Amino acid sequence: MRQLNLLSYNVQAGIYSRQYSDYLTNSWKHVLPHPERLVNLTRIAQLLRRFDLVGLQEVDAGSLRSSYVDQIQYLARHGAFPFSYRQVNRNLGPFAQHSNGLLCRLRPREIEEHKLPGLPGRGAVVAEFTLTEGQVLAVVIVHLALGWRARRRQLDFLARLAQCYPYIVMMGDFNCGCDSRGLRSMVRRTAMRGLDCELKTFPSWRPRHNLDHILVSEPLKTVSARVIDYALSDHLPISMTIELPEPLRFEGAWTHETSLPASSAA
């Protein structure tokens, strides 16, 4: 198998946003549980089933606000992903477990966590997948800071990380668009592709900003890329299909078996 269907989605802890005023009227849902949350996550899981590998941002790893449901495991189970991983970046004990998540259909050979520069609470997950010819594909899931100073340092960190892998995918909520000098500098330094100003993901009800990106190293071919109109968060999901260069293949088989239980790849 040479192709891989990717999706990146900031799910806002399962909170359904329809307009800017929801940030105020739904603010309590960031602290307290609500039955709509699981309904929303189930609908999100139906979308995720179409993909081989999913990077999640703003998922809760199990706290009061999520009714102590690990949302990564919930989405893995209902999306029929056999392997999942969570990175808790901001641990507020029983009140919130702010996390990045990875869901995939092929077991990674290794997973590493990185704390990003700046104030605590931002991280990156690096999952390595074995290819033929002794090569490795690295998939990096990120959620960057809101402030441009911290974000510039984080992009510098990611540029250094990208230089360690000839085959790499970097995906997530970068909290900046294609007009960001820091983001453009990182793309230029790493020769990555995929920065598309037309792929607008935020806000989901009237997308005007391209805050979410899937970037790939130059040897990888982009077969397709699009934003999916699936407004169940304040962000829209972004998808990409990539293809390995000949003669590379993934070692192992990607499974699409819908009855597999979710398990941790850690």
TrEMBL record:
InterPro entries: Endo/exonu/phosph_ase_sf, Endo/exonuclease/phosphatase, GPI-anchor_lipid_remodeler
Keyword Kinase belongs to the record: no
One Pfam family linked to the record: Exo_endo_phos
Keywords: Endonuclease, Hydrolase, Nuclease
Endonuclease/exonuclease/phosphatase domain span: 7-235
Molecular function via GO: endonuclease activity
Gene3D superfamilies, per database record: Endonuclease/exonuclease/phosphatase (3.60.10.10)
Top-level taxon in the UniProt lineage: Bacteria
Single GO BP term: GPI anchor biosynthetic process
One Gene Ontology cellular component annotation held by this UniProt entry: membrane
Protein name: Endonuclease
